[in-house]
Specification:
Blueprint lengths: L7 E5 L3 H13 L3 E5 L2 H11 L2 E7 L7 H10 L5 E7 L3 H9 L4 E5 L3 H54 L8 H32 L6 E5 H18 L3 E6 L5 E5 H17 L6 E9 L25 E9 L32 H11 L3 E7 L2 E9 L7
Length: 390
């Protein structure tokens, strides 16, 4: 299939006769070729004009060679597809160019028909890349829409329901209050899902900001645990805390860490039967005694992690149906929903645990889950701050 759109192609070769012959052939095929004979002129044309779909770039040229031009195009994020042209014996160099962003290469002397097929293939791949980039932008725009167009109205809804629940607009009986609180809890779940989705995207893009400082992990865990004690009691669930009596300093972002513990406790509350138990443990261990930490063999620890003289082990466990063994390795993947059933399960987007893993890793820690027939336990290990005394 030949081009019918007069797409612009740049030919870069210091051998004028080869460049002109190639230009004539591409022109006959329906393209709009342009010729330059050195690397500097190629960069000027590609970076400043930005309307070439393909560049046929000779590797060996005086001055700026093709490899240098390719690297500068990559640094400038030029989206023109690059096909390297090389003499016989330089194929290894051409393959190396492909690893660094070139679309294809062809050896001289070449058949014009073969060259034309490679140009068409390179253009098709370029279109695919541009379409994927557009889809990525649309996804990011959608995530921003979630933040601004959904989260803000939900916050207003929560505030309005709370005003009614508190009796500011008239007397509310106990049953009505429970229904209103359920509505608030559901809205808060959606807000949490949106926050998790936004922050996961920021983690992936390397744009998350963590203000890490020394914090007493016992105080932070106690604060979050107290928030979940009431709904646990309301649901007929025993809520137990077993925490170190002395302060334990860790380097974390306070708000992110509170969200991590809240996600784990919310997950435990969701999957615990009435009459069951949720337990929060937080204690200090020595890094040189890994047997006491019960670290699974498949867990990859940060470099020199066990050289820390003090390590905090935080766990959230709950009784219930447990987690199927074939789901354990995927439990922290995005949009993974647990299949545990207890008759009171609430839906979720499967983003909370993904956020937990990404955040804990930013704190130079690790997280995993263990499951037995009637109990599941999420475990976090974090290095103590250097100001702790062992």
């Amino acid at each position: 299939m030949r081009s019918q759109t007069s797409e612009k192609i740049l030919i870069v070769d210091d051998e004028h006769e080869i460049a002109r012959a190639l230009g004539l052939y591409l022109e006959d095929a329906g393209y709009a070729p342009a010729l330059v004979f050195d690397g500097s002129a190629a960069l000027d044309a590609l970076i400043f004009e930005k309307d070439y779909t393909v560049v046929l770039l000779d590797i060996n040229m005086p001055g700026l060679d093709g490899v240098t031009v390719l690297k500068r195009l990559q640094a400038a994020e030029c989206d023109t597809a690059v096909i390297m042209m090389t003499g016989r014996g330089n194929e290894n160099l051409a393959v190396e160019c492909m690893k660094n962003g070139a679309e294809d290469y062809i050896s001289k002397p070449f058949a014009f028909e073969d060259m034309l097929q490679r140009v068409e293939r390179a253009q098709a791949h370029r279109r695919e890349r541009i379409e994927k980039r557009q889809l990525q932008r649309e996804k990011e725009d959608f995530i921003l829409m979630l933040s601004h167009d959904l989260k803000n109205p939900l916050t207003a809804v929560i505030g309005s329901i709370d005003i009614v629940k508190e009796g500011c607009l008239g007397t509310v009986n106990e049953e009505q209050g429970e229904y209103l609180q359920s509505a608030i809890d559901s809205c808060n779940e959606v807000v949490t899902m949106i926050d998790n989705l936004l922050d996961i995207r920021k983690f992936e893009a390397g744009k998350i900001h963590m203000a890490t400082h020394q914090h007493n992990i016992i105080e932070l865990v106690t604060k979050v645990a107290n928030q979940f004690a009431r709904p646990a009691k309301h649901d007929g669930i025993e809520f137990v805390t077993d925490l170190e009596t002395e302060s334990l300093l860790v380097e974390v972002d306070k708000n992110a860490f509170i969200r991590v513990v809240g996600n784990l406790l919310g997950n435990a509350l969701k999957f615990t039967h009435e009459g069951g138990t949720i337990t929060v443990n937080c204690h200090r261990f020595r890094g040189d005694r890994p047997c006491l930490l019960d670290i699974p063999a498949y867990i990859t620890l940060p470099p020199d992690f066990l050289n820390n003289t003090c390590i905090v082990r935080l766990s959230v466990s709950n009784t219930g149906n447990g987690i199927p063994l074939d789901e354990l390795e995927h439990i922290f993947d995005r949009f993974t929903q647990l299949s545990r059933k207890n008759g009171r399960e609430r839906s979720g987007a499967g983003l909370g645990l993904t956020y937990c893993k990404l955040a804990v890793e930013r704190f130079n820690g690790v997280i995993w889950v263990e499951s037995k027939e009637q109990q599941s336990e999420f475990v976090i290990l974090l290095p103590c701050s250097s100001n702790n005394h062992t």
